[in-house]
Design a protein that fits this description.
It is a single chain. By secondary structure, this protein is mostly helical. The chain has one domain. Helices cover about 50% and strands about 0% of the residues. The protein contains 4 helices and no strands. Helix 2 (about 25-45) packs across helix 3. The longest helix is centred in the middle third of the chain and has 20 residues, at about 25-45. The N and C termini lie far apart (about 35 Å).
Amino acid sequence: MNTFCRRNGIIHETTIPYTPEQNGITKQAIAVFFEMVRLMLYTANVSLRYWGEAFSYVVHIRSLSATTGLDGIVPYEAWTGRKPDVSHL
């Protein structure tokens, strides 16, 4: 796993088991994703049964959005090495 992460530019950070307070970044990201899903479904007046599709779209949008962790590129570009086509947005 360490070799895979190094080869792909992934910073592999571990935490002590059963200490959720160490998962702050992950918890925050999940909270942001679910808030985006809730807002998306609410503003579109769509049934909650479409939350899976909305969540997939939120993940897609976030991978095409700038982050502070990457300097001048989006996660999609960092992973693939190609600039994303955002014309469909």
